Amino acid sequence: MDMPGSPAEALDMLTRIKYAVPMTRWTCYWAVMFIVFRMVVFRKYTADFSNRVVSIVHAFVAIYYSYVTFSSWGDMFDGIGGPNTEPQALCMAVSLSYFVYDLIYCAIVGEIESVFHHFFTIGGLASGVLNGKSGAELVACLFLMEVSNPSLHLRTLLLEMGLKSSTIFSLNNLIFALVFLVCRLLIGPPLVYKTIACPDNEYIVKLGGFGIMAVSIMWGWKIIMMFVKELKKLLGIGGGGGGKLDKKTKKTQ
Q1: pLDDT (tens digit, 9 = 90+) per residue, 58-76?
Q2: CA end-to-end span of the chain
Q3: N vs C: which end of the chain shows fewer Cβ within 10 Å?
Q4: Cα 16 to Cα 207: distance, rounded to the nearest angstrom
């Protein structure tokens, strides 16, 4: 980011970084939320259980803040590479504070894959906040990522609660698979293409979009197979379980 060369540019820079202090406070709030869940509310479960509950809370917050930035669904593909709006900047700042918290958590517990994933996510969001642009595509991408995350984390919570064979587990898997495939493999690719093709976007934003698309494709086939198995299970025609996804679901999806 270039240094300001005029009072107007200096004021613009201060506007972009005005969330620096709130983001530090919000990051602490996420950490306190985890501690409360871990030490009080969900003491009999693992630390991962409490952290995923925090992730679910963030998912709903991010979905809401992302949604209110769109005046219509077509806005998701408009304004690529353009200046941020105030709602977009706030949305990115709130989620940035969460990903900083979760990066620290993942580093402490040794989830190295998630650490690398979060570096790219934080890089993209930080670029959007500090450079004052690309908010449209970053917020749209955040929405498409987070909308499937409540069911993603819930499936792991249900596994830890011993509810793998329950109907709610199968229904949650179906919801997760359907939302993931629609958002990541149908709506996502055009957005990623526009993001990468836009000459005004920073390389970290383009790289982040490409990385998310690559991860989505990698997991797509496995999730399709899980969807088929769970559908057969619910219809009583054989099959069951989520295959390899029945192991502790990684957060890098």
Answers
A1: 999 999 999 888 877 666 7
A2: 30
A3: N
A4: 22
